[in-house]
Amino acid sequence: MTGPLTQAAARPGTPAPTEGNPTVAEHFLDSVPGTVSNVFSRELPPVLGLEPGDTLTVHTLDCSGHLKRRRTADEDVPRMFGERRGHCLAGPIAVRGAQPGMALAVTLESLRPDAWGFTAAATSDTPLTRRLGLTGEDSEWLSWDLDADRGTGTDQYGHTVSLAPFLGVIGTPPDEPGEHSTTPPRTLGGGNIDCRELVAGSTLFLPVTVPDALLSVGDGHAAQGDGEVSGTAIECGMTTRLTVGLQPSPPLPTPHAVTPAGRITFGFDADLNEASAQALDAMLTWLTSLYGVKRATALALASTTVDLRVTQVANQAWGVHALLPHDAIR
Fold first, then answer.
1. What's the predicted TM-score (pTM) here?
2. Residue 277 pLDDT
C-alpha cells in the first residue's frame, strides 16, 4: 500500500477471508466523513467491526486533519473538521468480544508515511517556550518532503533526517459518559502516547475500557525524538497495517508494549516524578512475573538494565516509558 486508500474501500462491508485462514479477515478503512472523530467517547457508534485476529489497513490524516498540504503556518487549507478540537482519528473500531479486564493487543505490521508532513515550534505561549526564551514572534514551521522508500525527510531548508514512522495515538475511550479530549494520554485507554518505539513490529497492549474496545488510531509521526519537545513531530498522514487480538489475562493492568527495542511500560502524570514511578512500578511487576523474582530483586535488575525515558512533554501530562531491551537479562 503506497498511498491513501480509495473512498470506496473505506466503507465498511463484508471483508474477504484471508487466504489460508477463513476465520481471519482483511479490512480497509480510509479517513473520510463518517469514519473519523476528534474526541474519545464510548457513545460514538463504531465505524467498523473486527474479530480478534483480523487485519486492518487504515489511512489516517495528519493530527490536524489537513486535506491538502500546508506549507506555512499562515496558509489556510481545508481540514476534515472545521474547528480543531483534537486529533483527527480513524474510528472508533469495535473489536468483538473485547470486555473490560482484558487487554487489546494492537500489532503494527507496517507503517508508511504520506509524501509530506510538518513540524511546528513556538506557535503558542507555554511555560516551556517561555523558559526557552521563545515567543510567538519566534515561531517556526518546517515543511517536509517525505520519501518512504528511502526512509528520509527533507525540510525547506535542506535538512534531511531519517524516518522511523509510528502512530502517536492508539487508544480507547474512558468509561465515563460524554466526550473526552484526545490530548492527554491515559493510564487505562492509552491514546496520545507519542512513544517513538512503537514502530512496525511492535505490539501495544491496552486495557479494554469499554465493551468492544472502540479503538481509534491516528496522529502519524514520520520521525520524532524522545520528548516531542516542540509539541509536534513530523506530523503526517499514514497508511498503517495492523492486527488486533485479545489477551484475556494480561500481565499488567496498564498499557505496555513489546517492541523491536524491547519491553516497554508507561507512566502518565502531570508530575514527572509520578509518571516515572508509574512506568517503573509497572516494569517491576512485569519483571517479577517474567523471572520469578521478588520485587526488590526486580528493582536491582531494573537498575542495571532498564532505561527510563521521557516519552513526551507536550500533552498536559508527562509521559515516561521504561524500556527493557530483549537481551538485557539472560
1. 0.91
2. 98
